[in-house]
Design brief:
By secondary structure, this protein is an alpha/beta fold. The protein contains six helices and seven strands.
């Protein structure tokens, strides 16, 4: 039996556990993105808005496009946004290699915990590159390829080296892996 690569929306409560905040704190991610007054961030695979909501609070005059392939996740996100009174997050239904946003819109793109789910890694990263302004940054954060008691099965995980190789193939430059998260790879790259 094949192991599913996609997150099951029925497991949504896992995405909101306090331990997750300790493992992959959006504040740490934001700081390491190194953004100076961004006007637009695209969160690809946003789920319940784990990073989109705190990012939106950091840029009150900007926009976060929270993109996901799951209508269930986006409906859940809309409820979260309403409850938090957040008005600068725009939920966007996407496909794996097609995000219905204009070229060069984003200062940064975040892909968190989805690289291991992708079927077309380089094509997906090319789509992210299309969304970025020249010099814009992408952060790919995903589970380290090592045994642990939580997260996806180890055989689905990808190494930081593989993420870097995929980014290079998609035309990104200045690709660096940072050891800032205990359980996750954090790979940062730039659009030329």
């Amino acid at each position: 039996m094949a192991i599913s690569r996609k997150f099951d929306p029925k497991e949504v409560e896992k995405l909101k556990k306090p331990e997750r905040l300790q493992r992959e704190n959006p504040e740490v991610v934001w700081e390491n993105l190194g953004l100076k007054k961004p006007s637009c961030v695209v969160d690809v695979g946003c789920g319940v808005g784990f990073s989109a909501i705190p990012f939106a609070k950091k840029m009150p005059s900007g926009t976060v496009y929270a993109c996901d392939i799951s209508t269930e996740m986006l409906e859940y996100l809309k409820t979260e946004l309403k409850n938090a009174n957040i008005i600068n997050v725009s939920p966007v239904l996407m496909e794996e290699v097609k995000i219905p946003l204009p070229d060069g819109i984003a200062d940064a793109v975040l892909m968190q915990n989805i690289h291991h789910e992708l079927h077309h890694e380089v094509a997906s990263l090319n789509e992210c590159r299309r969304l970025l302004k020249p010099g814009g940054r992408i952060a790919v954060i995903d589970w380290k390829k090592k045994p642990m008691e939580f997260g996806p099965p180890q055989e689905l995980r990808v190494s930081a080296k593989k993420i870097g190789s995929d980014l290079r193939e998609a035309g990104f430059v200045q690709i660096t892996a940072h050891e800032i998260l205990l359980y996750h790879s954090f790979v940062l790259a730039q659009k030329p």
